[in-house]
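Comment thread on ticket #2218

A.B. wrote:
> Attaching the input chain for the structure job we discussed in standup.
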Amino acid sequence: MINYFILQVLPYIAVPVLVIGLLYRLGKWAKARIVHNITLTPAPTTKAGAMLDIAKEATFFRSLFKSDDKKLWAAAWIMHVSLFFIIAGHVVGIGFLGRQFAYLGITSAETSEMLSSAMGTFFGILLLLSL
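C.D. wrote:
> Ran it. Output below, let me know if you need it in another format.
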C-alpha cells in the first residue's frame, strides 16, 4: 500500500505542487517593487530587450564568463546543459516510453531504447563530472 502511494500517487501530487509553486514565486519576483531605480548603461529600453538580455544571461552565463574563472564558467555551463537534456529526456522518454527516435523514423524501437539509455547515461556522467 505504501509503495503504491509513493510510486503511483505521490509523483502526480508533487509535480503540480512544484510547478504551481515555481509559477507563484516567479510571479511574486516579477511584481516586486524596485526600491532604487538605478540606470545602468547600456540598458535595454523595452521589455523585449530586457527579456532578451535575461535570456542571453540565462543561456550563456555572460557575467560569469566575464570573470577571471573560465573553468568555473565552462563547468557551470556544461552542468546546466546536461541537466537540461536529462530533464528533457525524462519528459520525452516518459511520454514516448523510450521510443522517441523510432517515432521520428530514425531507428527501430530496440535501437531507440538503447540510444535513449546511452544518451541518458552520457549526460548523467557529464553532469556528475561537471559538478
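A.B. wrote:
> Thanks. Noting for the ticket: Residues 55 and 61 are 9 Å apart (CA to CA).
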